[in-house]
Amino acid sequence: MGIAYMPGFGNDFETESLPGALPQGQNSPQRCPYGLYAEQLSGSPFTAPRGTNERSWLYRIRPSVRHTSRFRAFDAPHWKSAPNIDDSELPIGQLRWDPTPMPNEPTTFVQGMRTMTTAGDVHTQVGMAAHVYAFNEAMEDDYFFNADGELLLVPQEGTLDLFTELGRMEVAPGEIAIVPRGMMIKVGALEGPARGYVCENYGAKFTLPDRGPIGANCLANPRDFRTPVAAFEDKEKPCRVQVKWGGRFYETEIGHSPLDVVAWHGNYTPFKYDLSTFSPVGAILFDHPDPSIFTVLTAPSGEEGTANVDFVIFPPRWMVAENTFRPPWYHRNIMSEFMGLIHGQYDAKEKGFVPGGMSLHNMMLPHGPDTFGFEKASTAELAPVKLEETMAFMFETRYPQHLTRYASETKTLQDDYLDCWDGLKKRFDGTPEGKWD
Q1: In the chain, what are the domain boundaries?
Q2: What is the rounded CA–CA span in Å between residue 26 and residue 32?
C-alpha cells in the first residue's frame, strides 16, 4: 500500500512487482517484458470525458481469456439482486436487526453473503443492494468477480485479506475498500471469522462529493485514499472462478490462478480508506446540520444533487452548538437509509442498536431518536461535548429498498424496535413552556 488515490478524478498510477515489468512509453508493445501479455480493463465507455474516463493497463502472465472456460450456473440463494420486489411479505415499517451470527460450518466470503435489501434494477445499472457478510474460510483456490456493480466493503469484525488483480490490501474494521466492477478478487481473513457490510452499487462509480461552500478541505481528502502495489500469484493448480452477471451466478474451472498481474498502470483500481482520517464539519453556533455533511463517497444518479447511493458516516466529533437538539431530528426523507454500526454507540439510539446490527428507514417513513435519546438531548447541559469511540454508517439511496426474504425471516430481526418511541408522550399543555416532568 502507499499510493494516494483520488477516486473519480482521472489520476493515473503505475506499479510493478518485478523490475522493468512495466513498459515505458507504449501500452501494448510488440513484446512485453518477461513474456507478459498486455490487457486493458475499462471501467467506463471509451468516449467518456477525461475526468470520468477510467481504464487500467495490466501486464499479466496469461490474458484473461484464459481465466475463464465454459461457465455453468450455480446457486447463491442468499445473494439477491434488484428487482427483487416480491421476495418478502413483511409490511413496510421501520426495522432493525441484531448482528448476523458467525457461521458454524466452513463458509467463504461468497457463501457467507446475505442480502438485506435491494433497490433499482441491476439490468439497467440503477440502484444498489445492501448485504451483510459473515465467513470463516478463505477463498484459497476460489476467485470471484462481479459484473453487476462495484463493491463497497465495510468490515465490522475481523481484518479482510483482500487480494485483487491489482494487488493485495488488508482492510480492518474502521476502514473501507472499493472493488471496481469486473475486477477479480479472493477474500480471506487475517485471523478468526470476519463479518461486515457490503454496498453493491449498480450505478455510476463512487466518487468524492462536491464540497460546495465548504471549500477545498475537510470531509474525505484525496490524499488519504490508498491503492495497492502490484502483487501476483504464479500458481499452477485447479482453481475455480465464480461470476455474478445479470443477477445470476456462474462458475468455471481453470488450471491456474487468475491473479497474475505483474505490473499495471491506470486509474481503474481498487482502493481503501481509513475512516478515522475523515475530517467532519458541523454547526459551531446553533442548529443541527443535515447528515449530508458526513458524506464520504457518492455515486451520482444523473440528476444533480440526487445520489444513486451515498456512503455516509457518523464518526467521533465535537458537538458544541448552543441551544440545539444535537442528535438527528425526527424526519421523513425522500431517500432510503440502511444503517450499520461498526463499533461503539450511535448517539440517537444508545440502546438496541449494537455493533454488527442494522436498521432500515425507508423513503417517507418517519424516524429519529428513541425516547431515551430524546430525553437525554433535551435536558443535557449545553457545553462542549465530544462524541467518542463510535462509528456508524449509512447506505442512502434515492430508490426504495425492498426487503429480501432472508431479512424478513431471520431470527435477528427485532420485533420490538417500534417500542423505542412509545415513551414520546404529549407535552403540549397550552403554555409556551410545555409539560416537562
Answers
A1: 62-258+270-275, 279-421
A2: 10
Instruction: Decide whether 62-258+270-275 matches 279-421 in CATH topology.
Output: yes
What does pTM read for this prediction?
0.94
**What is the rounded CA–CA span in Å between residue 167 and residue 163?**
6
Determine the Cα–Cα distance for residues 223 and 428; give it in Å rounded to an integer.
Answer: 51
Neighbours of 279 (CB within 10 A): 13
pLDDT at 50: 83
pLDDT at residue 32 in the model: 95
The fold adopted by the segment(s) 62-258+270-275 is: Jelly Rolls (2.60.120)
Residues constituting the chain: 437
- Give long-range contacts, CB 8 A cutoff, 24+ apart: 137-140: 137/106, 137/107, 137/108, 138/108, 138/186, 138/187, 138/188, 138/189, 139/108, 139/109, 139/110, 139/186, 139/187, 139/188, 140/186, 140/188
CA 230 to chain centre: 23
What are the tens digits of pLDDT across the range 184-233?
999 999 988 999 999 999 999 999 999 999 999 999 999 999 999 999 99
Which residues, in sequence order, are bridge partners of residue 197?
132, 154
- Nearest by Cα to 141 from 235, 260, 74: 235
Sign of the dihedral through C-alpha 179, 185, 186, 190: negative
- What pLDDT sits at residue 350? 79
C-alpha–C-alpha distance, residues 235 and 287, integer Å? 59
Task: Kindly indicate whether the domain formed by 279-421 is annotated with CATH number 3.40.630.30.
Answer: no
Active site residues: 288
Q: Which residues of the chain have pLDDT under 70?
A: 1-10
**CA proximity to 302, closest of 56, 115, 118, 120:** 120
pLDDT tens per residue across span 3-51:
555 555 457 889 999 999 999 988 999 999 999 999 999 999 999 888 8
Edge to edge, the sheet with strand 126-135 lists 3-4, 225-227, 271-274, 175-179, 150-157, 194-201, 126-135, 113-121, 402-403
